[in-house]
Queue: 2 jobs
Job 1
Amino acid sequence: MKRALLAALLLALPAFAHKASDSYLALSVEGKSVTAQWDLALRDLAEPMALDANGDGKITWGELQARQAEIAAWALAHLTISTEGSPCAPGPVALAVDAHSDGTYAVLRFALQCAAEPAALGIHYSLLFDSDALHRGLLRLTAGGETRTAVFAPATASQSFELRGQLASFVRAGAVQVFSSAGHLLFLLALLVPCVLRRQKGGWAWAARFPPALADAARVVAAFAVAHSITLSMAAFGFAHPPQHLVEAGIALSVAVAALDNLLPVIGARRWVVAFAFGLLHGFGFARSLLDGGLPRAGLLQALSIFNLGIELAVLAVAIVFLEGAFALRAAPQRLSLAAPGRPHRP
């Protein structure tokens, strides 16, 4: 089981070492009207829309503009915004282009008219999910002076938003950032494994008691939390913007280092140092969707604090579930072919 876990950690690296496919949807609700800006990566539009008409490997403004109607129709076929079960009707779509940290995006701007002023907004998003399960739609919703964020994935394609209650929405968005990224989860789990199960001469051995294992895990989680909070804040306030491809590569490297340490233990009790060092990179990873999707300038510190709270709650939940599950398995080591402290390993 241990070898299978570590193999899974390493084999998963290629899946998230490259930039994920994202789109950015910004909605603003005013009375019965919802104004929208939807940023779609040209690389995601190129194949379904056949944008490169002359086949020269480049997409020009003329080629993009020539397919404006088809792009708008295709995109809106994968987005439904409704209130009280009644879809809001989209109006004409204007087209522009913009540069994000990972390339050029087509920008669709349009307005939707709802039958009544919405108290809640239902959104169904299904863009690219049939061909790319890793695609994410990053939402920024502004209503009543409050701004909230959310992430659309195949499992969360339909979501409903009360147009009040910013706290819960930002906490949820922070938690989703953790659970929707394999890199963050695998790094954390790889660092937590040695808290309860360590490689020694002759095989693997379980931690002797729960309190020391808990203290070890607490140091790792705390170091990770402090580190990613620092760089998340730095990015949000504009103090640092490292290239995204370097951040993604660093996150992949962090998983490899943490996983390999399970096989060839060299870090030992200094895993909290590794958690802190690589946690700085993970903080920039958490910040990416907020920066590209748009973080509210008004009340930025409060929004960041609430979002970070969601991240910390998710990380804490992962650690607690892992430790509880590991010690539950420890009660039956013979079924796992692992030796608990004081018990000889039996082939």
Job 2
Amino acid sequence: MNLVARLRQPEYTGENRCIPCTATNVAIAAVLSVGVGVVYPPAGAALFVGSLLAIWLRGYLVPGTPELTKRYFPDWLLAYFDKGPQVSGATDAAADADLRHDVDPETLLLEAGVVEPCAEEDDLCLADDFRDGWTDRMDALREAGADREALADRLDVDSATLRFEEHDDGFEAFDGDRRLGQWESRAALLADLAAAAELPEYVDDWDRLAVGAKAQVLGGLRVFVETCPECDGAVTAGTETVTSCCRSHEVVAVGCADCGARLLEVPYQGEPA
């Protein structure tokens, strides 16, 4: 077991395993093993088993594979396998044809009077009434256990079986062993819960939006958070490089300056956010 522990590379195995790297190396191992097996079948079988063991322990067989996949694999493929937090709230249990799935968050929020053109700059700002209501709700949810009760009520689950897990990839909610959803942080969850309670007063057909569409609107609205929902500090925004098991890419990140909670992370397209 000590030998296994020394050989294992945690940065490339377990939850950190790069699926494209693993698939590529298994394919290489299979080709090499078949070639050797043509000459001497037992050696081919042994080579394949040994290669699989190496991939399981180290994450790859060919040295430098993680860097090679980042450099030569298309970005759309790496993004598909990326393990970063990509869910903003719970997902639909089943698609409903009567619900509205496609929305433009900016248009919806403008038409509802949630945001409006800023008075002193060419940008959008929160409407005063919505800002006050949203802030009050976030302040109330900051109390211990309030977020659990609010999420349980919104998802119609028992708060006694609802639990949260926080880790490097984000903030997750579970009903027992069933995963309900993932956010960038508890601060993002608080912002979404407060907005979801306030928005029906402004958006007439809010209840007709599918869960995915609601999550899109709630995620977009977090750009306008002015005070951290969790630590009540300043909110900052900027671009940064995010490195995952499969790739490195630029993102626009919105977060809390005091406690470091991430509110929003979206791909950077080379234009102002």
